[in-house]
Amino acid sequence: MELFVLRHGHAEAEASSDSLRPLSATGAKEVAEIYSKCSDSLASVELILVSPYVRAQQTLSTLTALSPHLQNVPQQTTTLLVPGASSMAVIDYLYTQATECSVGSILLVSHQPLVGTLVDSLCNLDPGCYRMGTAAMASIDADVVAAGCAELRWLRHP
Question: Which GO molecular function annotations are given, in alphabetical order (predicted)?
Fold first, then answer.
């Protein structure tokens, strides 16, 4: 499986709850920048999984507005991708997508600390050795979707 892990763009600090924090103008620019660096790689994406939080949804909307391909890719909003979610639960879900649904390439749009722990867990990396700032994207290859069985191909920042 080919996996792209995207952290949402910069968000506004103020909202009535964390889940309602919107993407800032800076965040929208970051998303456009990361898309310009990674657009060729994203042409293979078959499924998009996104957090229900406003800033993640807006990150995806910004990305799909730039990409005719991603506009036609099925999207699933899931609480598996909220900030405090379990990376192991995400890995289990990805395993199911790869084995039972034959999905070969997925884009995840989520938050810290989940994006960092997910990349670390899948690729058997020392925790925190790679920084995933806002709108950072990681590309991972996994012949077997399981902790410690994947390889980090690249990590790009806007």
Answer: protein histidine phosphatase activity
